[in-house]
Design a protein that fits this description.
alpha/beta; eight-stranded mixed sheet; four-stranded mixed sheet; 13 helices; 21% strand
Length: 594
């Protein structure tokens, strides 16, 4: 999944996006069978309390747990847009600490290992004081302190050339100061008149400022350390329960216990191995043969049947803050014409796509008609169907084109100037059969309009989304956003223009370069508004305009599936941008396991 900011993320399909703080209290799915207790040894577990399923109070020390990643890692700084992928974030959950962590019930919780407290002490200017656990140190013994908060702030907000996944909130900070022993009292003061309702979203993760290479917060050194020093190679310093001890490119990442870990629990494992299996069809046999201990694939009907038959394997299937969508790349001049985008999204038949993909394994998943909220969250409303998108209405789609003076509609499209409409390229993540099917059905719909769409796989979703080079390019793409519990800060970086995100070429997670002044304003208002109802109104106004502009087409709330060998305790689904490794320090062997 891609996009964790821990605001939005791209995930393995899931990219990380921060959705609603008003989420309903749980991510468990309806369905027959399964159990909510910890005695299930095979098949589906139903999580009556998503935060405690598979709980073990005192795991045994020892053992190697191998967890499958569906994507390779090419950038280690998840605070960059190029590195902001779900799989990278899953690994970094064990390495870099965050001030707040999204829980399986979709709520944010303060990281009590890192912090003793975090609270707003003043409203004008808004002032937040973080009290760091005095035991909290990086793996080389350096205290975790205000310098690390300052580095993340400066990299996110003041570095024009830095690749930044999100600067939301950070650009409104006036100062960060450290005081007390080892500067472990961190005071964040916002600019006069500025407020940030989603302040708990910030500083996730923090990076070790003293390990920045090169040192220095000037523009040149900061860009070098942010875009390369923390990005090009696996980190050698950890502030989490584990530290990276081996990396085999495109194959695996091995982590060992951090001997300077300061947390209340764990780590319990001798080793934690993240094995990269980019061909999703190879994950089930790897789990069956105990080559891996856990996997987080997309649910498919055949996969569920395989899991039901596996001895000693249990699984959770949930709905959370994850959604599948089509996006256009507006950097292509041919797609800058609204009529073309309207026609394509109208020709696409969401029902047929869902029948052929997600509904095969879960017939109860509804179409998604909002980008800011998922069904069940306060604020969810339909901002899509009134525009006729996703209906497969070819006649209406053709009319958009003919009314805009296109010719060759239905055969070989020609634009109003007389030029042949160029072939488009739609991309999906390599090895993902569901996404390949979604892309092919999009291409089939476009063909009925006289538009050729070539389906192509990408071996690096991050590089493709950022158009890193000629080998990684898209005109249309399908992927998923994975969210945190913060709707405003999560969505602003996805849809605000570069101007609204601080100027320059900083588009954040707005990979398709969408621009609308009203959307900029509504999203900006949602970040500063302290009235939850006003925030919901701002977000839905923005969402409705994005629909009107036909920039993205939501498909469905994406089910998540975590399967693991039942000898492991405290591993559980977390259908947010954090993913299952949110509590990796607690993972360990059950006392009865051998």
């Amino acid at each position: 999944m891609l996009g964790r900011r821990r605001g939005l993320q791209v995930a393995a399909g899931i990219a990380v996006l921060a959705l609603a703080a008003a989420a309903c209290g749980g991510s468990s799915k309806k369905g027959n069978g399964g159990s909510s207790n910890n005695n299930v040894t095979q098949g589906r577990i139903k999580a009556s309390d998503p935060n405690t399923v598979n709980s073990v109070s005192n795991p045994k020390k020892g053992g190697t747990l191998t967890y499958a990643l569906e994507k390779t890692i090419s950038n280690w700084n998840i605070l960059t847009s190029a590195g902001n992928t779900f799989e990278t974030a899953e690994v970094m959950d064990a390495v870099y600490p965050s001030a707040f962590v999204a829980q399986p019930d979709l709520s944010p919780a303060m990281n009590t290992d890192l912090l003793k407290s975090a609270k707003v002490t003043k409203t004008d200017p808004e002032t937040i004081v973080y009290q760091i656990n005095p035991k909290a140190v990086w793996s080389d013994g350096t205290p975790i302190n205000a310098d690390d908060f300052i580095y993340v702030w400066k990299g996110s907000a003041t570095c024009d050339k830095c690749d930044v996944a999100s600067n939301t909130g950070y650009t409104d900070i006036d100062s960060i100061t450290g005081s007390g022993t080892n500067k472990q009292t961190v005071t964040v003061t916002f600019k006069q008149g500025k407020s940030f309702s989603d302040w708990k979203y910030m500083f996730g993760p923090i990076l070790p400022a003293h390990a920045a290479q090169p040192q220095g917060l000037d523009a040149t050194n900061l860009e070098a350390s942010w875009d390369h020093g923390f990005a090009d190679n696996p980190p050698k310093i950890s502030g989490g329960p584990y530290i990276i001890t081996n990396f085999s490119k495109d194959q695996s990442v091995t982590l060992s216990p951090n001997t300077k870990w300061y947390g209340a629990k764990g780590p319990y494992l001798d080793k934690l191995v993240f094995r990269m299996i980019t061909d999703a069809t190879q994950e089930p046999p790897a789990l069956q043969n105990k080559e891996i201990d856990a996997m987080y694939p997309q649910p498919e009907v055949d996969l569920i049947k395989q899991l039901d038959a596996m001895q000693g394997v249990v699984y959770q299937e949930d709905l959370g803050l994850v959604y599948e969508h089509f996006d256009f790349n507006l950097q292509n001049p041919a797609l800058q014409d609204l009529a073309v985008r309207q026609a394509l999204f109208t020709a696409v038949n969401r029902k047929q796509i869902m029948d052929a993909t997600v509904l095969q394994s879960d017939p109860d998943v509804p179409p998604l008609n909002n980008r800011m909220f998922v069904p069940g969250q306060d604020g969810y409303q339909d901002n899509v169907t009134k525009y006729g998108y996703g209906t497969g209405d070819i006649a209406k789609a053709k009319k958009y084109l003919t009314d805009a003076k296109y010719t060759g509609v239905g055969t070989k499209l020609v634009d109003p100037s007389g030029k042949a409409f160029p072939a488009l390229q739609i991309a999906y993540t390599q090895g993902n059969q569901i996404r390949q099917t979604e892309c092919q059905m999009f291409a089939d719909a476009a063909k009925q309009l006289g538009i050729t769409v070539n389906v192509t796989a990408t071996d690096s979703l991050g590089k493709t989304l950022t158009n890193a080079d000629s080998n990684h390019h898209y005109d249309v793409i399908v992927f998923a956003w994975v969210a945190t519990p913060f709707p405003a800060s999560g969505n602003a970086p996805l849809y605000q223009s570069a101007t609204a995100q601080g100027g320059g070429d900083n588009w954040g997670g707005n990979y398709g370069h969408y621009t609308n002044a009203d959307v900029d304003k509504w999203l900006s208002d949602s970040l500063s508004n302290t009235d939850p109802k006003a925030v919901v109104k701002d977000l839905n106004q923005a969402d409705d305009q994005i629909s009107k502009d036909a920039y993205t087409l939501p498909l469905y709330q994406k089910p998540t599936l975590l399967a693991y060998v039942n000898k492991w305790g405290n591993i559980r689904d977390n259908a947010t941008s954090v993913g299952p490794p949110y509590n990796v320090q607690e993972w360990g062997l059950k006392s009865s396991a051998s």
